[in-house]
Design brief:
single chain; alpha+beta; FAD/NAD(P)-binding domain; D-Amino Acid Oxidase, Chain A, domain 2; 3 domains; ten-stranded mixed beta sheet; six-stranded mixed beta sheet; 16 helices; 32% helix; globular; binds flavin-adenine dinucleotide
Length: 520
């Protein structure tokens, strides 16, 4: 994926480099269309690097009677597990059941039977009280009855976005980050004719001829296409996570529980060796142009919930190593309780301008299908679908055996067909973990060389996620990272200094453990 001199005409322009835009881009390129994707900030800068990383059917949607949404999501989960091994991985859950609150055993039994039926496989298990006490150290014992377990899947959300984009670029698509769609010009019939974009990197303003603009800008969708549905608007809802070191509680599965205050489901889940606690669901009243951050009030809410569930753990904000907040693009009419708002996606059509927003990371392919159907009348009829060989199913050959099976799985999942070259090109010393994280030094080199890095935060928060796992966002490693990545980035020492300062400031403002001073 390199920054290229882009053409002035495409079959389709996609605005937004989150999972929705990446999904549409990938699907359209595979169908043989000439597609340009532009992202105003960095790929996966928005909600798509800030999710709970679950590829899930959404058990709670069953409770709301949304059977079709759950069924479709379960099917997608199974397909993504097959398509992206090493990136989308199986994930187990445990949900403790109490006598005095939370779901009843009978309701969980019905829900999980349906869930298993949809997945065409028995996906649930039961735990006795003694087994729960053994599996979850420090758990509340009063009124504890038992637990149920079930299966879903987990993904590095930002890497899934990058995988889709880089696979599609290998098949002929063009994707640029730090390039923003400013507006659309229409012909006499009112159809999309030209899309105006500004390239933040060169400062160039470009006019792209196209008949289709896919607006996949998530919570920003109404800036390009005001809602055509009377009374319906995007309601930005913030969801936040606190990150803790993995050794705080040995956990090989998601601990799912009901918050005692408002009876919302909350999760403590292991990911990349750390533990994530989330999420909240509150109206997002922070500046939309800036990165969202977790407030002290949200942190207190999450800690109250986990302390109630795990009184024996003695967890506090002092244990927290970082935090991350994201904004859900939820379509709302009545402004009901945030957690009761629908998570289903919408597609709006306006003569070549197709807006697709809402929905979930899990169902990105369904969103892409719907968007392409809506764009169909404005797309050329005959294009030859790509062979699918370059971006799909990369295979580890003998030369890859120099690294362990685990490393092969990680690299093939995250980097697809670039993985064999990564394994052969870089010094073997680089195939070691960065500090106590699961990321490898070699991933920094690959990202710096091939993945459109314009700022240090692109590298440390989205291509790799080490800014979330290392103490103080990895400040102690910045000089080493500079030495390693300098050959691949055309940054002089002044640019490195500026980038380091900007990264530290951003980390302290938006990713450090929450404290009141950020909100003043
Ligand atoms: C806390 C939280 C947890 C979640 N957990 C899960 C989960 O576990 N599983 C799941 O399936 N789903 C989950 N979701 C939902 C899921 O993350 C979102 O539905 C999904 O990421 C939305 O992706 P998107 O591409 O539509 O939006 P985004 O990822 O926000 O992408 C939109 C992009 O458009 C760009 N943009 C804006 N304006 C322009 C412009 N004019 N030109 C070009 N680009 C522009 C933005 O910079 C942004 O990067 C969660 C959401 C939240 C908030």
């Amino acid at each position: 994926m390199r920054r290229l001199d882009i053409k002035t005409e495409y079959d389709m322009v996609v605005a937004g480099g989150g999972i929705t835009g990446a999904g549409v881009f990938h699907a359209a390129v595979k169908k043989g269309f000439r597609v340009l994707l532009v992202e105003a900030k960095d790929f996966a800068w928005g909600t798509s690097s800030r999710s709970s990383k679950m590829v899930h059917g959404g058990l709670r949607y069953l409770k709301q009677g949304r059977f079709l949404l759950t069924k479709a999501a379960v099917k997608e989960r199974e397909q993504l597990l097959k398509d992206y091994p090493g990136l989308v991985t199986p994930l187990k859950f445990i949900l403790p059941m109490f006598d005095h609150y939370g779901p009843s055993r009978a309701s969980m039994k019905i829900g999980l039977s349906l869930y298993s039926f949809m997945a065409k496989e028995n996906q649930h298990e039961s735990f006795s009280k003694a087994e729960v006490l053994k599996a979850v150290k420090g758990i509340r014992t009063d009124n504890l009855l038992s637990a149920v377990g079930f299966k879903d899947a987990q993904v590095d959300d930002a890497r899934l976005v990058l995988r889709l984009i880089s696979d599609a670029c290998l098949e002929g698509g063009t994707a640029l980050n730090y390039t923003k769609v400013m507006g659309v010009e229409r012909n006499k019939k009112g159809e999309v004719a030209t899309v105006h974009v500004i390239d933040d990197v060169s400062g160039a303003s470009l006019e792209i001829k196209t008949k289709v603009l896919i607006n996949a800008t998530g919570a920003f969708a109404e800036t390009l296409h005001p809602s055509p549905m009377k009374g319906f608007h995007i309601r930005p809802l913030r969801g936040s996570h606190l990150v803790f070191p993995g050794n705080l509680l040995p956990l090989d599965r998601v601990l799912s529980f009901i918050h005692p205050k408002d009876l919302r489901p909350v999760f403590l889940f292991p990911w990349e060796g750390a533990l994530f606690l989330g999420t909240t669901d509150v109206d997002h009243d922070q500046d939309m142009a800036a990165e969202p951050f977790v407030t002290q009030k949200e942190a207190d809410y999450l800690l109250e919930g986990i302390t109630y569930l795990l009184p024996g753990l003695d967890i506090s904000i002092k244990d927290c190593i970082s935090s991350i907040a994201g904004v859900r693009p939820v379509l709302s009419k009545k402004r009901t309780l945030a957690s009761k708002e629908s998570r289903e996606h919408v597609v709006w059509k306006d003569k070549g301008l197709v807006t697709v927003t809402g929905g979930k990371l899990t169902t990105f392919r369904l969103l892409a299908d719907d968007a392409l159907k809506a764009a169909c009348p404005y797309l050329p009829r005959q294009r030859i679908p790509t062979s699918g060989q370059k971006g799909q199913d990369p295979v580890a050959d003998d030369a890859c055996q120099i690294v362990s099976k685990n490393i092969q799985e990680r690299l093939f999942g995250r980097y697809g067909s670039a993985a064999p070259q990564m394994i052969q090109q870089y010094d073997e010393k680089l195939f070691s973990p960065i500090g106590n994280t699961a990321s490898l030094w070699v991933e920094l080199c690959h990202a710096a060389e091939h993945e459109q890095i314009h700022h240090l935060c692109d590298l440390l928060l989205r291509r790799l996620r080490i800014g979330l796992f290392l103490a103080d966002g990895g400040i102690q490693l910045l000089d080493r990272i500079q030495a390693l990545c300098s050959p691949f980035l055309s940054w002089d020492s002044k640019k490195w200094d500026t980038e380091k300062k900007a990264y530290i400031k951003l980390w302290n403002t938006c990713y450090s453990p929450p404290d009141k001073t950020k909100e003043s």
